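Structure tokens
________________
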Amino acid sequence: MRPQETEDSAEPLAVSWPAFQRWFDDHWNPGEHVALVGPTGSGKTTTAVQICNLRPYVLACDIKGGDQTLARSGWPRITKWPLPGKLYDQMQSGREFRAIIGDSARGSAAMQRRRILIHRVLNDVWQQGGWTIFVDDMQLLTDTRRSANLSLQLEDFLVAARDAKVSIVSNMQAPRRVPRAAGDQASWLVVYLTRDTDVVNRLAEMAGRPREEIRGAVRGLRRPCILLVGTDPSAPILVTRPERL
């Protein structure tokens, strides 16, 4: 059964990962945000990378530095901004470009360096339009004790990015620990198995769906399956199995 055959149904539908990718590629519009919610080690970055591969122009914000799952994506790392003019020329000619923002060094000084770089990148892509931005670990990037202006910048960006046809894909462990806009502005939620009632209730709020519906769908998840929920009430809830990188 193809996913589009159940668009009027709220019942979860199990589909293969390739079938999901084909369906999502058709339904994920430029300017729509995706929020992935789940505990550490659940596979959020793996899923995010494969979702981002559906888009031609992607920048992944690796605030932690040296993320191994991101490294397995095969995307190059960029440590300077703006990009060389020849890359923009190649993109104008239709060549795809995906990259990881920031070096792989560890320590507070390196993290601060990456924050400054990400700040510059966000300023520019907002004006350029057409990009997909992957924020790996939204909580770490928007921690007000260490990020200050980045937290406010991302909130503004999440609200305004639609007009620029810029999509943000973000990972988070608990929606309550990140800016509300990260969830409220998401058109698609990717959910992993969780028993945290507060997380499930917030997910229902973010999706605009009844709590009982989301609770039942999450409760029925089995590792390593995931749940895709569209914030459009007429969109289906899809269950699928992401492949490991």
Summary: The chain is about 40% helix and 20% strand.
